[in-house]
Each structure stands twice: as structure tokens, then as C-alpha cells.
Design a protein that fits this description.
This protein has 360 residues and is mostly beta strands. It is built from 5 helices and 22 strands. It has a 5-stranded mixed beta sheet. Strands 3-2-5-6 form a 4-stranded antiparallel beta sheet, with no helix packed on it.
Length: 360
């Protein structure tokens, strides 16, 4: 994610060589291009980066419409326009080997912005970057630190922790990069973190209230599905409630049927369907409840991508017929109601719950 240093915030989003930009409300004089007094003249700064590597681009031609500005970025990708009248302008950015970006924006006050140019050789849908997530806590109490700034300065990427101390930063180029963690009332710390294209680096960071030396942060790099990250799959796994099967396990075991993945899981048994001996269904031993079914056969509720496809109870669900194992990104198994996410709890969860998440 990219944060502008101050207003106006101008982003050129390339889509068919057209850029969308922030447009403000202009006075009639400005709208008609009339000369404005010095008090309405401002200075703006911009920085242009490579959209894939996030490296600064030198020599980008910056042209500012009818105002007559024609300058180039320096070695840090920076350019500055001084004494520009408040008003609306056409801005274009071009550099050999990159897609041209152009768009209209309004300048109402001094400020700065960061934008990118995409290499002509880079496919639009290729993402050769890593994903950075984690949690920042107080070094003494372990309580979450909300509003902490997480910044990968080399690539102008940053994130802010939420009320639970968690943060997300996407689009991080592969390699080892210094990351700065700072928050009001805490000593700023900088650590080098490794990133791998297509994988997630997960950090646990402790900030000290006093500028004293503390232990290095712990960073693990693993393959994570962004959709599962957003669904809370990995957070629940870290809490230790239930049984979890992630994408790496699925690809390592290469199941022919979805039920193959349940073999050996604690609290889980595979039984033949009462309607077809050739079909298998899942029964969670910890979820047996004869008060519901009368015969001890208590089958779990099955949920696929948040949608309840089988409510469980005395009626078995042949999950091998519900989803192809090659389409599955992760599975959560809760043998009883303990630990079941609130959105899936209730009477239907009395026999346990199986959550299936597909690749998206």
C-alpha cells in the first residue's frame, strides 16, 4: 500500500493509458484559466516508482498541460513544480520501456504524491511480490499497539496497525529489506525482513516503551492464500482451536478424494454412507450427541466458502461429491462446538463443523 505524504493525493492508475486522479472544486476564475494572485500559487512534489520493483525511476518526462511545465525526475524518482497556480491540469508521465500514464487532477494546496509506471514487459496480471502481515504488541504487557506505523522505506510501502495490533502490507518486492516499526510513546525499531514472491512473511513485533535493546522479531515465511488470510483461517489456526489443513498439506498429500485429507486427524473418523457403502462420509467423534439423533450417529455441519451446504445431525454429507480436492485451499475441522467461529455456531454445530475454503 502507498500513502501520500500530504494533500493533494494524486494517483495515476493505468488502465488503457488513462489515469484517474483526485479532482477538487475550483473557483470560476480557476476553472477558466484566469491568472491568479501569488497567494494562490503553491508547490507540489511527486515521486515515480517502477510498478513491479518499486524502485525509483530516473528521467521520467513530467508534462503539466497548458502550464508549460516539462521536467524530468531525478535519481530518486522525485520531481518538484514550484509556484503553480491553484487549478485543474492535465498531467502526463512517460519513460521509454514503460506504459505512458496521463490524467487530469486539481491542485488546491501544496502537497506531494507517489505514483507508478508499469514496464511494457510486465503483464498486468503478474504479481511477483510478497505479502507482509503481523502483529505489534507492547514489549512489557503484550497488549496490542494500535496505530503503529509499519514502513518499508526502500519501496515507499507502509501500513498502520488496527485495534488488535495487526497490519497488512502487500506488493513487497522479493529480498531482504529493512522494516521500521514506530508508535507514539515507544522506541522506534528497524529490523531486516526477508520476503519471497507469492508468499507471506508473518512478523510478531514487540515495541519497548524505553529505548532499550530487546530481542529480535520472529519472522516466518510461508505460503499463504490471501483469501484465507482475510477469512481469519490463519488467526484461528494460531489460536490452536480445531484441526487445520492448509494448501501445502493438500498439495503434499495429493488426495484423490476430499475425505483422504481427513485420515489421521484427531477426533475424526471416516464411515461408509448408510445409503451407499462405496461412499465415505465424515463423523466427528467428539461431536456424537444421541439426544439429537437417538442412535449416536451425529454428522457435522459442512460449510463451503462461508455457505452452509449441509446442516448436519442424523443426515450424513458425502463431501466427496460436494467439492473437488484440487479446488480446495484450506479446511478447518471442529469436532465439537468448542472453538467454532461465532458465525457458524449454534444448534446446527452440535455435531461439529467442517469449514472448506476453495482457491480464489
Amino acid at each position: 500500500m502507498t500513502r501520500a505524504a500530504s494533500t493533494p493525493s494524486i494517483r495515476l492508475a493505468i488502465a488503457g493509458a488513462i489515469a484517474a486522479a483526485l479532482v477538487g472544486i475550483l473557483t470560476p476564475a480557476v476553472a477558466h484559466g484566469q491568472a491568479m494572485p501569488d497567494s494562490t500559487r503553491v508547490s507540489i512534489q511527486g515521486r515515480v516508482l517502477d510498478a513491479v520493483t518499486r524502485a525509483p525511476l530516473e528521467g521520467v518526462a513530467v508534462r503539466l498541460g497548458l502550464f508549460g511545465v516539462d521536467i524530468r525526475t531525478d535519481s530518486t524518482g522525485l520531481f518538484e513544480i514550484r509556484g503553480i497556480p491553484v487549478g485543474a491540469y492535465d498531467l502526463s508521465l512517460s519513460l521509454p520501456g514503460y506504459q505512458r500514464a496521463e490524467g487530469q487532477f486539481a491542485v488546491l494546496r501544496a502537497g506531494s504524491f507517489v505514483t507508478t509506471l508499469r514496464p511494457l514487459s510486465a503483464p498486468i496480471d503478474v504479481v511477483a511480490t510478497g505479502y507482509f502481515v503481523g502483529r505489534v504488541v507492547d514489549g512489557d504487557s503484550g497488549t496490542p499497539v494500535a496505530g503503529a506505523d509499519v514502513r518499508i522505506a526502500d519501496f515507499y510501502l507502509a501500513g498502520i496497525t488496527d485495534d488488535d495490533g495487526r497490519f497488512e502490507v502487500s506488493g513487497v518486492p522479493p529480498g531482504s529489506h529493512p522494516v521500521r516499526f514506530s508508535s507514539l510513546g515507544y522506541a522506534t525499531r528497524t529490523d531486516t525482513v526477508g520476503f519471497v514472491a507469492g508468499q507471506t512473511s508473518d512478523a510478531r513485533v514487540r515495541l519497548a516503551r524505553d529505548p532499550i535493546e530487546i530481542e529480535p522479531i520472529e519472522v516466518t515465511v510461508e505460503r499463504r492464500e490471501i483469501a484465507l488470510q482475510r477469512e481469519g483461517f490463519y488467526d484461528r489456526r494460531d489460536q490452536g482451536m480445531g484441526q487445520f489443513i492448509d494448501l501445502e498439506i493438500i498439495e503434499r498429500r495429493r488426495p484423490e478424494r476430499l475425505t483422504d485429507l481427513f485420515t489421521g486427524l484427531p477426533g475424526v473418523s471416516l464411515v461408509s454412507s448408510p445409503y451407499n457403502a462405496l461412499e465415505r462420509t465424515v463423523m466427528l467423534r467428539g461431536g456424537r450427541n444421541t439426544t439429537l439423533t437417538g442412535d449416536g450417529s451425529c454428522y457435522p455441519m459442512v460449510v463451503i466458502d462461508g455457505l452452509v451446504v449441509h446442516r448436519g445431525g442424523s443426515e450424513p454429507a458425502v463431501i466427496d461429491n460436494l467439492v473437488d480436492p484440487q479446488a480446495v485451499a484450506g479446511i478447518e475441522v471442529y469436532p465439537s462446538q468448542a472453538g467454532v467461529p461465532i458465525r457458524f455456531s449454534g444448534l446446527d454445530a452440535a455435531c461439529g463443523v467442517v469449514l472448506v475454503w476453495t482457491r480464489r
